[in-house]
């Protein structure tokens, strides 16, 4: 395809999405819900074929991919439930009140509205759950926005097959033409992000690429929100009592979490802080011996991991516990076994980015600490933004040091985990998958039902006739959504309600 033909095709995609925006926003949420379920059903029906394609393109195993398909389709069904219920619209009605204590109040009605066409950049490491029909797509469609997905070059055939299913399912469900489209290529992605018809962006990937795209979104004549999930090292802290109580269990869980999917997970624990590594070395070595080599997702990921691993293994004050290995095939893909190294707090602090940067692959750093009281300050200084932070404690352990550490970790991570491991992200209402920069460009969530809020904007109507109000704000409430209504004559009671203070 020539550059001119590509430009014409992209312009058509953007024009159709912009044309569909108003019509799709006006679709009854229950109809949108049925459309999301239709997409899920079609993906499930094609799962065998899709998984075979994914295995070839990504090197991921069938059990992992089957689980990911299940997560993807049930994620769509979960969003269907949320929008059918309607609470996400947050419909608020303040009735006109001539006696309002601050001054006469007009009739005010506020509701969440779709932002408009959303551009989603698919991820490499979750070819279903964070790709064409993944979480960002599900959230944006649920909110009532047309979606344009820029496919990831790591699984192009799978992306095309999935996109065809999504388009067919939405069309058969009666959704407007232009509600969903797939584009390919870096230049098309950047051009779409710069286009005024795109009203929000979402991304999962590297810090470098995500920050570049976020800067483009912010530098537009009309800046748009850009929700990027970037880098995270997900530090884990083990108390002295926990190490004494469960060293073998912690070692086994650690190796499993680091090596799963060849460490190509945004929640992989990159650092494990322990009062002494001696009790863990034997169990870690033993557990790592059972981990077979695993292929990297892409050739660039192979190169990046090789460079990062060589830097760590050659750094001052760093010793290999399990050296691991990386071999490359004729196509440039890497096949890795896990690498574990050990260092000290002093070496980690003095090593700077050479030691602190994320390693996207099966590598993790064990850090020996001497002073538990220093861990809160250390965590805040070395790890300012993460998706997760984890604490392992002994049964019933409580202390001021633990409370201080927990408070510090809540300031640097979106999810604080106790006695578990950060890999494995539950798709549910209370999940938070985001965090302070560089974990994310905006500290919101890309997983769970709260993710829908990223692609909505509040609009208020003052003294508007019933006939022009959105359905969610009308007195007859044709969509049947929850409405928070505040009647007249209540403001004089402020501050005197029994039992409220």
Automatic annotation (TrEMBL):
InterPro entries: Ald_DH/histidinol_DH (IPR016161), Ald_DH_C (IPR016163), Ald_DH_N (IPR016162), Aldehyde_DH_dom (IPR015590), Aldehyde_DH_Superfamily (IPR050740), ALDH_KGSADH (IPR044151). The keyword Repeat does not apply. It holds the Pfam family Aldedh. Residues 471-501 are annotated as: Disordered. GO terms for molecular function: oxidoreductase activity, acting on the aldehyde or oxo group of donors, NAD or NADP as acceptor. Residues 5-435 form the Aldehyde dehydrogenase domain. Gene3D superfamilies: Aldehyde Dehydrogenase, Chain A, domain 1, Aldehyde Dehydrogenase, Chain A, domain 2. Keywords: Oxidoreductase. It comes from the Bacteria. Signal peptide: none annotated. This is Aldehyde dehydrogenase (NADP(+)). It comes from Mycolicibacterium brumae.
